[in-house]
Amino acid sequence: MAFFTLNKASLTHNYRYLQKLFSKNDMSWAPVLKMLCGNEKYIEFILSLGDEQVCDARLSNLKTIKKLKPGIETIYIKPPAKRSIKNIIKYADVSFNTEYTTIKWLSEEAKKQNKIHRVIIMIELGDLREGIMGDHLMDFYKKIFQLPNIKVAGIGTNLNCLSGVMPSKDKLIQLCLYEQLIEAKFDQKIDGVSGGSSVMVPLLLKGIVPQGINHFRVGETLFFGSDLFTNETIPGMKDDIFTLHSEVIEITEKPSVPYGNLEKNPSGDMFEVDETKFTDIQKRAILDIGLLDISKVDFLKPLDSSLNFVGASSDMLVIDITNAKKDYKVGDIITFRTDYMGALRVMNSEYIEKRFI
């Protein structure tokens, strides 16, 4: 049976690293917990590490967070859907927003629940996901400030989330200027300028984040220690928090290429046969995980670097162990590191047990 582990010591180390980094720069931050997919024991452990705000993009996860730690401040990090408004007010203290109509619905529901709901207005800076275009900002804010039971908690942006546009000092200065313009025109204090996600951490380490940026949302770098500019581990952070363990269920020597009439496989891929390898024999191991659990093998990296991927079907993963350093047997465990998207997929699989180490 496959299982996924979270290393408590390494996660604690990364959490403390980020706490110290943001505290030193007089900035606040919020862990983004969406990749934990609502797993209660993992969430409970994260919540035990500090009292920072926490972010998620799924209401069911925010409900779990509020159940585990009612006093924690929660942020819903995507524009709310109309049918979610009631639960947004119930479980999220803050939400990201880009539409006046949506904020009006939030205002009406907040009044019903006798709450003040805070909103962060997302501004478009080039990545072309959610965000208001800059030339619409003043008219937008004029209407928002008039709504009851709504407080503008800040402005924010997202970069490197859809189109791959990276943050820069110029873009962050632009965000700060928008905040200053809004404050000056409407005589309203905007407390938070949320500069972005994990992709911002390398800029902070280099000291090139403008002083006006005072809030970050961090998920990938917390869980993987990632520098998203270099795709390497940030010095001083850990990259071994999550590990996938899968059992060998078959080992057989087989031809290295398929034989027979070929058509597309269930994933829609067409295998191209190298006729020069018809006589080659390959020692293959089949593991008890598949695309249903991992989405694609590119998200995985075996700790044993002598192993090579052959392919995967919905429920099984085939590994070439011909040149393996170890003499693998049926029942052995093969261990993988995952990247962010791989861990997200595994966490979302009900078929893989989640454990601590």
From TrEMBL:
InterPro entries the record matches: Ala_racemase, Ala_racemase_N, PLP-binding_barrel
Domain Alanine racemase N-terminal: 7-226
Keyword Isomerase recorded: yes
Alphabetical list of Gene3D superfamilies matching this protein: Alanine racemase
A Pfam family per the record: Ala_racemase_N
Entry superkingdom: Bacteria
CDD domains: PLPDE_III_AR_like_1 (cd06815)
Keywords attached to this entry: Isomerase, Pyridoxal phosphate
Cofactor or coenzyme needed: pyridoxal 5'-phosphate
Protein name: Ornithine racemase Orr
Organism: Corallibacter vietnamensis
Name of the coding gene: orr
